[in-house]
Amino acid sequence: MININTLKNRRQKLANLINFPVVLWSGKSPSKNFKANHYPFRASSHFLYFAGIPIENAAIKLENGKLDLFMDNPSPDSTLWHGEMPTREDIAREIGANSAYPMEVLKDQIDDVATIPVQDIFTYEKQQKMLQRSLSINKASKEIDNQLMKAIISLRLTHDETALKEIRKAVNVSVEAHKIGIKSTKKCSTEAEVRAVMESYIISKNMICAYNSIVTINGEILHNETYHNSLKSGDLLLADVGAETALGWASDITRTWPVNGHFSSSQRDIYDVVLAAHDTCIEAIKPGVEYREIHLLGAKIMAEGLVNLGILKGDPETLVEKDAHAIFFPHGIGHLLGLDVHDMEDLGDLAGYEEGRTRSDRFGLGYLRLDRPLKAGMVVTIEPGFYQVPAILNHPQFKEKYDQDINWDKLKQLSDVRGIRIEDDILVTETGTEILTQNLPTQAENIEEMMR
Amino acid sequence: MININTLKNRRQKLANLINFPVVLWSGKSPSKNFKANHYPFRASSHFLYFAGIPIENAAIKLENGKLDLFMDNPSPDSTLWHGEMPTREDIAREIGANSAYPMEVLKDQIDDVATIPVQDIFTYEKQQKMLQRSLSINKASKEIDNQLMKAIISLRLTHDETALKEIRKAVNVSVEAHKIGIKSTKKCSTEAEVRAVMESYIISKNMICAYNSIVTINGEILHNETYHNSLKSGDLLLADVGAETALGWASDITRTWPVNGHFSSSQRDIYDVVLAAHDTCIEAIKPGVEYREIHLLGAKIMAEGLVNLGILKGDPETLVEKDAHAIFFPHGIGHLLGLDVHDMEDLGDLAGYEEGRTRSDRFGLGYLRLDRPLKAGMVVTIEPGFYQVPAILNHPQFKEKYDQDINWDKLKQLSDVRGIRIEDDILVTETGTEILTQNLPTQAENIEEMMR
Questions:
Q1: Is B361 found in the same domain as B234?
Q2: Are residues A175 and A150 in the same domain?
Q3: Of B444, B417, B422, whose CA–CA distance to B311 is shortest?
């Protein structure tokens, strides 16, 4: 399952970029109710990138292309509860480590190493204690940490074949999960039931969800994580569900479909606008293109479509310049995908933003998670959406600013369109794109067909 | 859904036991890959007991039967991502709070209050900073904390009607999940597929799993949390899966069934021994009986059965006295069940063990999680098991000590019995017991019948 050559390659590539040693911790599973009732373990993505497999309570030291593994052997007592576990030597062999030591040896080898803070606070405290310096989550605390972050970002921005194989695996399972969700909806009476059908497929393939699923008739609540609503004929259901492989690689897919199997004419009108933006953005992807331009292109197609439907008034380009599109499409067109669903978001905008660039304070650009020129080997999502968010539409400031741009009467006729998003995972290739999620239909008529 | 009278009752009962103010924090969801990709939120059980509903980043002050709520209103930005959220005032009304304040007010009201540390380390650090004293997870750091823990334990040891209603809800969903798992197994080809079917039912009812499911053909690995094995005819599948309600109340059920629908004669022999222990223990439960005696009774019935099968040799009582039963049944007969699957295990043995008692160092008793006289209103699990744990059977020390007690040739004939456990949830009533999980068959023939 693990490709040691790939791992050694990644370690060597890191060595080509920096000239100081690095220690990366894997982390541990946080406890939920009490110590033995814990959340499932999820290793730090930076650790996974170089070590290949999730090992709890471990650390790796990377130096000159070599990897030393630090972990304790399972205690005899743990054999009773957890069975025969691989020893340190077994794991060292499996991941192609150059040496392997008990954890306590690490503290003598830790002078002047660079690191990246893990997400679990327990290990994070341990990191700081061992290194005898404080670490800030989200940003570098020391110049070598900063250099390390940049080096890792430059590696993880584009994917090797081993990574792509894993991402494809995750994508394929997610595609099937969505197909089953779409096909089962007419038999389901609640959001929770559709979620169950979709996640069940992911669990049956021995994968986990890469993020908390969104399965909702209130698609306008962008990060909705509740599933208590009943499904009613006439509702649209928005499902943003993605699998993650056992080695930690993610996928991220959204589809929106009508609960009763038929888009109403207003739903279909808006769906086709979102789909036009989706398709146009994907067609525009190729190496060298600025992702920010893809975002603005998506915004323009959305604005054009909404003007054609009589919902927005005026010239599409001018509307985008004044961020009128963002009334209905308030988030970014997408993000990097890899070991994390928003890849390397633990490093803040250092990963998503090209050096020297910062977040725009424009309403229609500030939520963009990625602002870099595209490169072959990157995987990005494209996920335009249309939402009627009460917090935006009823906001006095927005209402005043955009009052003349919106045909409010026309908008009232769209009360059955609360939220639509269409999201695919796109590999940037030398010549353009490969839509990794291409086996999942996007066209409204194909979705209706699947529901028949 | 929430019964304010029950909550007020619990608050008043606490006030009857202690004469100092208490602050309990709810906690927050730990981040997984990065801040926005977090584990699902699970509120501290002590907070849930008095506040009734999970509210992230909140605290309650309990004094003289009154409850003050401390939480910040959702930020305007969060409305965009999370929709209209209830305000502090809405929540205060919902949970019957006497007053409600922003979080920052708490630090002026926190002198000399008792508390219990939460499990999430982020909030735990905050607790310590606010209280300006250090807290140890698992034990009281100050005398008033100790008194608080004992007071809460005395309340949570037995359940009011509101709690029982929630536990019954969780149990009923788990019972159905097990039925579906049993009925679907012949169509499944991996552990992961059976897990998916079972958890899917729980998700479809908008509940979560109360703990990480065990669904394994290696039942001898007691806390097995992997699901990668294929199912082969002749395997037994052990499934320990339980639902938790939206308000946090747990259930905990285990069944073991043959993958092909028929117990082999060796599997059936051992199954019936475990079931005899299970049934005898449940029949012995009533107020006043020591749970430790139930455990020893289970051990004796197991030993008797194994002697009858010719696997153990000698007098059952003598075998139990020397812990020979624990070779095959190395864990305790069960535990408390409530808001936590091992209820109040965050307080260590302060909850599970009657004052003045400590863990036995006997191999056959030391893993017992509960050592108290039973009282009406308690909910406990009864979960005897038989396992062939290589770490025990091959352990030189055990091998030597028990060599004469075991018929090793006979044992060899049981190679298709790796692990069997049968676990039910039992309410202690004034007159004896109510088996909350009674709608799920335990008899081997009934399970075979369900699989037909």
A1: yes
A2: no
A3: B417
